[in-house]
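Protocol step 4 of 5: obtain the predicted structure for the target chain.
Materials: sequence only (see below). No template structures provided, no constraints applied. The aim of this step is simply to have a reference model before the mutagenesis design in step 5. Sequence pasted as it appears in the construct record:
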Amino acid sequence: MANFISEDDIEQALLQNLQHLYGFDVLDCFTSRPDDINDGSQRSDKRDVVFADRLQAACETLNPGVPVATIEQVVAKIMDRRSTMSPIAANRELDGLIREGVSVEFDDAAGIKQHEVVRLIDFDTPANNKYLAVSQLWIQASVQAPKAGYRRPDVILYVNGLPLVFVELKNSNIKLRSAYDDNLFNYKHDIPQLFHCNAFCLLSNAIETKVGSFTAGWEHFFNWLRVDNEKEQVNRKAIAEQGTSLELAAAGLCQPHKLLDYMENFILFHKESSKIIAQNHQFMGVNNAFERFLNRDKYDGKLGVFWHTQGSGKSFSMIFYARKIFRKVTGNFSFVVVTDRQDLDGQIYRNFLNTRTVKEKDAAQPANAEEMRKFLGQNKKVVFTLIQYLRGVIDMHVEQADIDKISQKISELLDESVVVPTFRIAKEKIIINGIISQSGV
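Step 4 output (structure tokens):
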């Protein structure tokens, strides 16, 4: 067991790492009186959680052709407290505005109406953004019957004035779940505005650190113990003894390029009512497959195998992967998702639709090989099919199906001689083998 580590020591170590290793500025906003407006945040109302001056400055820098007055309107739109919306609806709306930008129109100097999209964050060049770690920020309750008039989170991570990461800390001798039951739960009730821009939450007592969506139950919070490589050895006993779990989570998630990648590509909203964020293995596995995709010519179109155990989120890994390619790579790509069971085929199909990864008109579920040829010829974005429809070409049991042979069959249906990518490729047709074998693929 680790020696006692105080909450303050954990906080200071985190802030030091964020500042000296990852380039964050640090701002201590503690005041002895919760209502003291002179806390360094430059807010005029302590119910505010977005730092308007920082967001305004960032937007002016990232959007030099947009008038200052128009950007002021964008900032006001972001800062709206959305009191009539549910927290997840507000979070979903702001997630879209942060990732896609805010559409605006204005008259230029010649009086000609212009239509632009104001970027709040530059996802392509992390160095173009401003990163700030804020500690001990008093936030005034915004609900009618708060349990407390003010709340003070331990650390909030800001990008361009937007509060993206909530961090709650406990002494090392306190059960971590209390950070969820006693703090996160109450904060969501009293200061829901804090979570409107939130990407994810970090809860830690140094011995143990959990990551989760603010909408998730405790059972859906998860560890983040690998930083850069899936093959990194994890010694849980040593991590607990040395109290380094938060250090690992911060290194794996809070470095600017990783934080922006996660915000942009690894957050889903399912059926408008639940939020899903990538776990450690999904973030690394999808990014490894994405890098292989970018270098697909080097690998002869072979993207490799992304192993999953049962219940570890295969279909959502497929969605993260497809979404990142659709968003980050220029090209008219289609995905072919191959499974061996109708229920699994239907589940994956519905998950793609329910997360708005693809529209129904851009997806297809062919009933046979002929229909598959037709749909692929129509450049559907995602085609879902069963391997049984290809059995005449694959001389093996379904559970032993070889991805190269599946890919080759798709190529034949397309009259193509070159096989391309999944995790394989056939003329911009990316083939994902969703078959569950005894090994748990």
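Step 4 remarks: The longest helix spans residues 280-294. The first strand starts at residue 25 and ends at 28.
Proceed to step 5.
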